[in-house]
Amino acid sequence: MTIMNVFKPSALAANLRNQCRAGDENLAYVQPRYDIADEAESFLVSADLPGVAKQDLGITLHDGLLEVIGKRSRQIPKEWKALGEEKEAFAYRLRLMVGDQVEEKNISADLKNGVLSLTLPKEEEKKPRKIAIN
Amino acid sequence: MKYLSPFNTRYGISPFSSGSFSSMEREFEKLLGSLPSHFDAGGECFAESGSKSLNPVWYEHDEAYVVQLELPGAESKDVTLEVSDRVLNLSAKRETQSEKEGTEGDLSYRQSISIPEGIDSEKMSAEYKDGVLSVSFPKTEAVKTRRIDVN
Fold it and tell me: ipTM for the complex?
């Protein structure tokens, strides 16, 4: 079945599209540009979410899956008309698997200038340690 | 040793599993991330945001033309707009969160925009919010839409 899908990308793509459109308000999902930095104390995830206001951003962590969904709102006054093609409304979605190295309770997030910064602290025993030599 | 990896990773190896290999893996992920991923069920439908385009979108209303550009990570004080001969040159500095090297490509934005005809360039204004810059080009009186009452 899996092998068949690989060779039938068009059929699978049509299937996928429906899947993505089944979400809230029928929004298409776009994966944002993102980066992960592995620091000594924590992992720092930054994702570009231009046009996403704080109230339109949702971050959930369930069963090891960290999901960020940010609705892209344009808030255009009614009398403005788009020149050329206007992109339909969409939502950014980033999904990351968080393993056992992260202290899930202490994940923090900050949204500034259209960039979401997530800090995922490492579990104490997983941090790099210096071992003293006697 | 899989501790933080993209949900839709296509590889047996986590992008974060080992030193030198991981950066290459991530490059692949970025590269493929910008294409519609037909090959895995966890993929995304669209991924235009993978490109470095500022995704300009133009609007028109009675008083002005407006263009919106995406500049995530820039501070409004670091956005520079210069007008020269019907062209608006935009440059902006992007702040990087981590001190790590090798992110040069992300550090700045640059774009030239042709200024529409019939614009009062003295009255242009710009606003920056949530990583999106809106530049307004007010129309001159001659170009503005006038409504004519019918008696």
Answer: 0.71
Rounded CA-CA distance B69/B97 in Å is 21
Instruction: Tell me the per-residue pLDDT of A4-52, one tens digit each, with 9 for 90 and over.
Output: 333 333 444 444 444 444 445 677 898 999 999 988 889 999 999 999 9
Question: Is there a contact between B59 and A92 if contact means CB atoms under 8 Å apart?
Answer: no
Q: Which two tokens stand for residue B101?
A: 């090297």
CB pairs under 8 A between A and B: 155
Closest-approach residue (CA) in chain B for A6: B39
Strand, coil or helix: A122: strand
Instruction: Report the alpha-carbon distance of residue A50 to residue B53 in Å, rounded.
Output: 12
State which residue of chain A sits closest to B77, comparing Cα positions.
Answer: A113
To test the contact with chain A by mutation, choose from B20, B23, B49, B68 the residue with the greatest count of A C-beta atoms within 10 A, namely: B49
Whether the model pTM is above 0.80:
no
